[in-house]
Fold these 3 entries.
Entry 1:
Amino acid sequence: MQGFYAGNYYSDMYHVAIDDYVIDVLLPDLAGHDRSPAAFLVYLILWTHLFRLERRSISISLQSLSAQTGLSKSAVQAAIRLLRDRMLIRVTKDSPTSVPQYELIRHWLQRRVKKR
């Protein structure tokens, strides 16, 4: 369903709120400095799922992440490794063959609280 608003069209689609830090700092840092736009895409997909589900962690397969980002499975694995090493995500597994659980680590929120 679409409506008309001040000369522009808008839709009733759901929107995902993203912290300014993700766009202003993580995007240039991951895509530019680390030369891994794939890591940013994977982070964004995880963020979107967690936001929509209103959860702290999510189980999602590499195959599903690959399909949703348009990246190869090995590119997704490398992106996850980078995000984990940069301490931007926490990855846990119940067993070696189970689907991983991903949790975002939003360290900038902790810093903001400490500044006050």
Entry 2:
Amino acid sequence: MKYKGRIPFGYERQEDELIEIPEQLKALEEIKDLVKNKILSLREGSLWLEHKTGRKLSYQGLKNKIDADARLGS
């Protein structure tokens, strides 16, 4: 299936397909846990992700991912 939309954090587009970037997805999971456990704020988590992966994810984008996990029961 060809993908034409915005590329989500943790993925890259190759020939119109989304390919996982395991290092980014692992970093995202680590940060989501730290934010959920109130060890880091959303803003701190967002900055840490950019420092660790070189890719930006806004604090609101991070919140949306955490909220989506909560809705899915993760």
Entry 3:
Amino acid sequence: MRPDPELLGEASRLAQLLLVSAAAGAAAERILRPGVNVRGVSLLAGLAGLYAGGWLWALGGWSPGPAILGHPVLPSIVGALAICLVLKLAALGAAGPRW
């Protein structure tokens, strides 16, 4: 039984997407330190940031810049930073006043 080439191609694209989004999310989490101690936050921030950053970039009509594995780097990182910023603000709001 031979594996289906289409299935292998889709699995490869999914692995590349997860790799790029995990890298962008890890960078954003390391820069902003959102204060949410949940496993997978960096991956989810990277995935959401990949799509949010791509949407923002398309809305502005800007050039996406360099790409890694076919996915643009700048929109991914900016989107992941925006998601981590929202998480940080939510964590600060949930912590309450500090006085």
